[in-house]
Amino acid sequence: MTLNERMSLPLWKKIIIYTLSFIFFCLQIALIVISVISTNYLNGFKYFNLILQIIGAFYVVYIIYKPMITAYKLTWSILILLFPLPFTILYTINSFSRRNNGRKRRRFREDAKIVWYDDDLKELESYSKEAANIVKVVQNNIFAPVNKNINVTFFKTIEEKFEDLLLETEKAKSFILIEYFIIAPGKLMDRLYPLLLKKGNEGVKIKILYDSIGSSRVINHKFIKKLSKIPNCEISNYEPVGMNLNPVINNRDHRKIYVIDGKVAYCGGDNLADEYINELKRYGHWRDNCAKYEGNIVKSFIYIFNQNWETSTKKSLLIDDYFSYNHNIKNDTYVMAFGDGPVLNGNSAYDFFSSLITSAHKRLYISTPYFILNDGMIRSIALKAKEGIDVKILMPKIPDKKTAFYMGRANYRSILEAGGKIYEYTPGFNHAKNIIVDDDLAFVGTINMDYRSLFLHYECGAFIVDNKINEEMGKDFNEAVLKSEEITYEKWKKRPWYQKLLAFILNIFAPMF
Cα separation of 445 and 329, whole Å? Predict the structure, then answer.
């Protein structure tokens, strides 16, 4: 059963919709061109030009006083002052709030009480004051309890994760929640679909949510119709591109969550598509990671799923029904699952990354496909290298987006000069999103080290406090490093001139979109 009519449109209607969307984008570009061409003409109308300058000045004052990163403020302010007409319009279009109204936020806060009651922050404080402080930073912005007694399984390949996911899906008795940026037909779904069909026939409730933009290139009407015919299955897409001009098109659902019966949750960098299990070779070998969680932390993932499910379908999960599973796990592993979304405030991902990076005392390992950051976070990483901490960053050698890769490379300088080490994964594309700190702190999730993930997309992930998982992730990271090319400062300086020029220009506009 589909809950959004636009997701199952025939091809000819989709062509019309995407054509109109492209035209809308071109109109924004045209505004810039018209403004530049007409500058001399408008100078003859001093009052009109004065009004534009005053409006631009008000926008700049508003931007300066907004709680946002300096790079974002500076980029928009300069462009608005130079070309007030197009960029005030562009800023207005691109700065519509991605948050839901107060009534919906209050309802989600009520739902959060079910998740929050078993917060183990006080116990974590006695175990690790540093880890507890990182949790407090996130909890200042969003609902994200930290839970003890969690079983965590780290999968260093998505092939391993997918086999385990199939086994757990086979055990499903009550419900399955699926939320991914990309869901694509292929060999992976050919194996998962029969299981979902079987479980649907057995009465298991299945809810599938995918991102309209993320899946637009690979998903089709036939595939959606096939999934929608699974008994007891509801399927929807997040923020579809429609005939309306959607001002929040920038805020995509980049999450990857798979929950079974409230017992097990998966979250990592992978989507439900063939390249993630290396059945489709697009950019060499695809490196990715994921983790599986068992324990009360699964309730947090259900809560995170419900935010975008309700936003997309206008239907809320019956929270009590989905949170009824009781776990009997006893260990010393702490996990905080968190995700930003349309019902939450602040930039939890950016604050979390900043706090986790600054907490490093021995080692700081970062695995990311993109490295497009503001100066503040780059300096924080470089500072750790200057302190003598073992700083390593793993990037792809074969990128999926060359322009983003060139932009990321441009940011290597400060870290290399400070003594940090940067590697590019020679076998192909490194898509894993991990941070490993010291002996017991780690992050696994969907968040890239770029502006889109940190400030625009809806993301999720987990902060793990555990020596064993940290050791496993560190070992996997160093194994990937052995297969990678180290980019020294001398190598970095010898980048082709066109890469340097393109990165210089694009990085100016990076905070805008």
Answer: 23
